[in-house]
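# nightly structure sweep
# worker-07 picked up a monomer target from the shared queue
# config: single-sequence mode, recycle default, output format = structure tokens
# input follows
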Amino acid sequence: MSRNFLLLLAGACGIAVSNLYYSQPLLEQIRVNLHVSAAEAGMVSTFTQAGYTLGLLFLVPLGDAWRRRKLIVGLMIIEALFLAGAALAPSLAWLQLLSLGIGISTVSAQVIVPLVAQMSEPATRGKNVGTVMSGLLLGILLARVVAGGVGGTWGWRTLFWFASAVSLLMAFVMYRTLPDIAPTMQLRFRDLIRSLWGLIKEEPRLRESALVGGLIFASFMVFWTSLSFHLEAPPFSYSTQTVGLFGLVGAAGALVAPLAGKSSDARGPRAVIGFSTALTALSFLIFWAFGFNVFCLILGVLLMDAGVQGTHISNQARILSLRPEARSRLNTVYMVAYFTGGSLGSLASSLAWNRSGWPGVCLAGLLFSSAAWLVHAAYTKKQ
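# output follows
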């Protein structure tokens, strides 16, 4: 696999997954524009994450039975249509419903990841997956910068129009460049879905990775869901554009993804996961103790993103090596757990902010990340 092609796939993953996070820096703007509460506006993010979970469960497994190029291109086109609909949403209820559709169709990135694993040699699989995931993670974090710039200047509806156009363009690029690889097996949709439970029962490392990944991503979403409320309130009182710039800070943390992949190849994923989950918990202690100091917030974001990405890359490299013929379904199980955790984290963040403000958000993130470390430690003890 050429370096340029790998970087193109990394960019495609980043563009696809960024649509999950465009709304987060704009939640305050959406709240004011649609005349709803902060908790109701925060549910836009929750609906998007929930939709992504549904797409992971019912669409990503098709990558083992369908031609992946057709699946990826089709999902990107559908995603563009939902984004255009969100730009026209007349009410919060419509925006939430369309956000669910955006989440469902954004899973094209998770069809690309098993494709990269399939096309990679075993010795470079972790590194290549890490490179593609670095693009995906940069998409997650830079989405906030783009949203802050475009949405903060021209409004949140313009941001969704922009995202729709970019998704259509990427669908065309993927159609022209992706190899048309035949599926690894022929299974009916019902049998594909049923086989997921068999994988869960038979693969303890899959169960561990799914649980740890879900908990660590919950902590990640706890932080980012409420950050805009925290930064737009006193003593910061930042603009939407400034809030979006925090994505640049997080993007620096995403640069550890290829390093995490290399470390996982060289030292094994277990050591990387233990260190990374502990680092994430430490970041929430910093947010809790020094969350009203912007420089400490930046330090915490760097540590948190490095910890979350290190955990995620090592988990994925580990599970994608288990059964070559079932990589899409293995990725489905893991990513369903991962984004179920993200949905719970978004919900917990909205509730914690309404009830206890920033200290409550930090406590929720600390509990999720500490639980991830404890689960990892318990499985390590069983080895």
